[in-house]
Fold this sequence. Notes:
Blueprint: H1 3-8, H2 14-21, E1 25-31, H3 38-47, H4 57-64, H5 74-84, H6 91-107, E2 110-117, H7 119-123, H8 130-148, E3 151-159, H9 164-175, E4 182-188, H10 200-208, E5 212-217, H11 223-231, E6 237-240, H12 248-256, E7 260-263, H13 265-270, H14 282-288, E8 291-294, H15 299-302, H16 306-316, H17 321-334, H18 339-358
Parallel strand pairs: 1-2, 2-3, 3-4, 4-5, 5-6, 6-7, 7-8
Amino acid sequence: MSIFDAEARLAVDGALLERIQAMPKIELHRHLEGSLRLQTLVDIAREYDIEMPEYDPELLRPFVQMMPGETRSMAHFLGKFATLRQFYRSLDVIERITREIVLDAASDNVRYMELRFTPPALSNIIGCSLSEIVSLVCQTASKTAEDAGIDVRLIVSMNRHESVETGEAVLKAALAHQDKGVVGLDIAGFEVGHPVQAFRHIFSAAKEAGLGITVHAGEWDGSASVWDAVSILHANRIGHGIHTLDDPGVLNVVIHRGITLEVCPSSNYDSGAIDRYEDHPLPILTKQGVRVTINTDDPLVSNITLSDEYARVLTYLPFTFDDLKSFILNAARAAFLPVEERMDLVRRFEDWLAEFEIA
Length: 359
């Protein structure tokens, strides 16, 4: 079977998707930089004279989105972000894309979202301070969320392949906005060949200040990367973490410490971490007792919504609606919120999911 045929099979039943769209959902792992609208990119290109053959969303699509038949690899996947970084041309652009991302989540009936973003990526062309970027994203997300009826918190991210000094500046900007909606710190980027030891003091300071810690690990690298995230950076959650299964000892630590995995199946397929959607280790992780959640990672790049991802999980993996509810409640229990707020979030989702079942 060709890659194109395999992708065609990822289509899901329309009635199933419609039902899932009505389901109250949580997103813990969504990157702002991978969630833009195609039309918005075209509008930015026109306004700022970004050279394109034609100002047509469909012609732009292959440069920012994984396409049928395209090689599934880390290099191809991350290459889309090299293109996307050319579009962050002004603070007005950052404000617009933040607003639209929150509105898109709300329209998909996502009721709680932790949106992560990388300030250096957004400020590189503009030349403004990291603090200005974090402040703008916080203000825009908060105002839009209030108007749209969704609860949004922010996770500030750095890259492990960039300098420790950059990471320290990211932490400083994050800590300055804890009272504006920043609840967590993340480290992402090129996993292989870029260990996290040098960032230990940054994440120790973040944890001491009360920020939740999530670490991209165990996606393109093995279980040792997960162990470093847990033992060195003291992660509360792991972004992806599918290679946790490679080492029984690491798996045991993740289970017994109650560490939650932010699993993104379509992204794992698109980035070459798995060969087929049906081969995703999510069922094995669940059977072993790992706390897992379902997320999109980058809706634009993978051309999905969270509802699409849920529908794919039900269509191509051995799960039921009851399993989806468990994943959602796992996410509520793992939210980077103060204890009382987190307990209230769990109660609200228990009520909403009970109402959904009745409906």
